[in-house]
Amino acid sequence: LVVGFATQNVLSQAVAGMFILLARPFRIGDVVDVAGESEVVVEDIGSMFTVARRKDGLLVLIPSSMIVGQKIVIRSRAS
User: Fold this and answer.
1) SS3 assignment, position 49
2) Structural domain of residue 44, as residue ranges?
3) In terms of DSSP bridges, do strands 31-34 and 37-45 run parallel, antiparallel, or are they unpaired?
4) Is there a contact between 43 and 28 (Cβ–Cβ < 8 Å)?
5) How many domains are contained in the chain?
6) Is the whole model's pTM more than 0.90, yes or no?
7) Comparing C-alpha atoms, which of 30, 32, 68, 33 is closest to residue 49?
8) Looking at residue 10, which CATH number applies to its domain?
9) 63, 65, 75: which is closest to 38 by C-alpha?
């Protein structure tokens, strides 16, 4: 049961990550509000996590499943 739940979670993360990689709602370098984080700079977009840097310099790993289906505010686009 535990293995099944863990596998389901990993698969849902991977599917969400693939959606983000294909749909490209934001790009590396964009400043966005997403998953409860405000004005973060997107540093990397992967299949499991998006890595963003907060204003205080800390890196935040945002699980892909927290991004899909949520509102994303793009404050500025990378050039």
Assistant:
1) strand
2) 2-76
3) antiparallel
4) yes
5) 1
6) no
7) 68
8) 2.30.30.60
9) 75
